[in-house]
């Protein structure tokens, strides 16, 4: 149905110019910049979450008796941040409702290195499993290091990663994104 003028009063004061209306009709949602859809609070939360991810990677338990300092390249940080924001934009609580499981894959093994609640004060609505990979060019050089060597040895991560999203309030299928 049609909205009466009194129904629209709560939507805002002015409806905009005719030029704005013509522009809005000519642009579909997929054509618009997705950055416009992001919540500014999610942007700040994501920056904070990425700091926690980096701190967690800074003491990642990859071997039975040792921890590693995993280095996240700037390109990987930017890609992960963009993907987290994209996956959170359709969620009822945004990024605040995320549980993040952080894993690192090397060889055929996948190591769980941390679990992070984006906002511990919010009941989680979705779970993201972020699987990062060691830089494969380094693998032959470091294979022997897993048995010995200093604690907190630095290793660089590859720019490739995988994210799996599971909605905790729905029976929808698991979404897997390979980047």
UniProtKB/TrEMBL annotation:
Q: Where is the signal peptide?
A: none
Indicate yes or no for the key word Hydrolase.
no
Q: Does the keyword Mitochondrion apply?
A: yes
From the UniProt record, report the name of the gene that encodes this protein: Ddit4
Tell me its family.
Belongs to the DDIT4 family.
Q: Where is this region: Disordered?
A: 1-22
UniProtKB keywords: Apoptosis, Cytoplasm, Mitochondrion
Give the UniProt subcellular location, in the record's own words: Cytoplasm; Mitochondrion
Its GO CC terms are: mitochondrion
Instruction: Tell me the InterPro entries matching this sequence.
Output: RTP801-like (IPR012918), RTP801-like_C_sf (IPR038281)
Give the GO molecular function terms: 14-3-3 protein binding
The lineage is: Eukaryota, Metazoa, Chordata, Craniata, Vertebrata
This protein is called DNA damage-inducible transcript 4 protein
Which Pfam family, any one, appears in the UniProt record?
Answer: RTP801_C
Natural source organism: Loxia leucoptera (White-winged crossbill)
The Gene Ontology biological process terms listed for this entry are: apoptotic process; negative regulation of TOR signaling; response to hypoxia
